[in-house]
Amino acid sequence: MNRYIGWFVGLMGFLLVTSAFIVFFVLFQSYRFWLQDAPEDAVALTVEIDPGTSLSSIAQTLDEQGIIASAFWFKVYAAVGGYAKTIQSGTFELPPGEDYATIVRALQRGYQGEVTITIPEGYTIAQIGDVVTTQLTISQADWDWLTGMDSTFEAHDIMRLAEKPEHVDLEGYLFPDTYRFFADASVEDVVGRLLDEMETVLLEVDTSDWPDELETYHDVLTLASILEREVQDSDDMAMVADIFLKRLAIGMPLQADSTVNYVTGGDSPAISLDDRDIDSLYNTYRYAGLPPGPISNPGREAISAVLNATSNDYYYFLTTPEGEVIYAVTHDQHVQNKALYLR
Questions:
Q1: Residue 66: phi, psi to the nearest 5?
Q2: Which residues face 317 on adjacent strands?
Q3: Mean pLDDT of 119-145
Q4: How far apart are alpha carbons 307 and 333 in whole angstroms?
């Protein structure tokens, strides 16, 4: 009798251990199938899938590159789910360690390579829109909406960081750089990426010498955006930044032609007298202080120039047709410089 009891206890123990193993295995595979996230520092790997490639070959390639942990279980997931025939050929960027469901969805979309987009420093939202809508399948209407005052990205972290007012659009918040996007990238993908990059830059720049004349990152972006449209060299940006900061400190108008051009849509380095009379808060000849928001999207050098301005005695400057910046301490000197260099 004791022998049977022992056998029964042993059998029950075996069944419990086996059941526990099966439950653990199912949960573990379920985690890999649907819940696993790639590590934050994971670098996406390029995978080429030729037309007609079998599911087994695809799984083997993903396994060999370390994108998935098991070719066998990836095939099981794809086959049971009926995904084997929906995987497309093309070039894919896949991070190692993502769950199988996410990987399959990416493979189903059939990315056909990537598009490289370069956005120069100082471009406006409209100019960036021209680049984006030309090189990607994004409509002008969608671009205008998602970069406007009613954009859903008003909830983005950078808006709180910069203390962006509600009555301005996303001008100044899209970081100019060279980006790679999938050919079918959405407008949300593009705008979100540019906002993320600008937030990263703002969190990285040195703020130990924050100017007293500026209260928020929105102010910093606004002044940096003006620098981008006024001068080109980083040393001149730091010099002119100090000039503008001194003007703000004493209540002197910035008198930046670039802000008037932003209103008129022009690009003249010397605006007309009629343009100077335009009644707009962006007209820094008519209204002292900063305009309501940025007039372009500044790069890292312009932002750094505002936060690390080069102290000088000048209050005036002009830029020659050749791009040279001429400085003056007094208005009389500035008038003389204009007569000499802007004939």
A1: 80, 15
A2: 327
A3: 96
A4: 28
8 A C-beta contact, residue 236 and residue 333:
no
pLDDT category of residue 92 using cuts at 50, 70 and 90: confident
pTM for the model stands at: 0.70
Question: Which residues touch 40 (CB under 8 Å, ≥6 apart)?
Answer: none
**Tokens matching residue 300:** 């890292």
* SS3 state at 99: coil
Q: What separation in angstroms does the CA of 273 have from each of 88, 188, 276, 289?
A: 61, 41, 5, 20
Which residue from 165, 119, 128 is spatially nearest to 146, judged by alpha carbons?
128
Nearest to 316 by CA among 301, 303, 327, 305: 327
- B/e letters for 19-58, b = 16+ CB within 10 Å, e = fewer, are eeeeeeeeeeeeebbeebebeeeeeeeebebeeeeebeeb
What pLDDT score does 118 carry?
96
pLDDT in tens, 258-312: 999 999 887 766 777 788 889 999 999 999 999 999 999 999 999 999 999 999 9
| Complete domains list, the chain, with CATH | 15-109 (3.30.1490.480), 114-204 (no CATH), 217-341 (no CATH)
Neighbouring residues of 60: CB distance < 8 A, sequence distance ≥ 6: 71
Burial class (CB in 10 A: 0-12, 13-18, 19+), 299: buried
CB 198 within 8 A of CB 158: yes
Q: How do strand 178-182 and strand 90-94 relate by DSSP bridges?
A: unpaired
**Does residue 27 have a pLDDT over 90?**
no
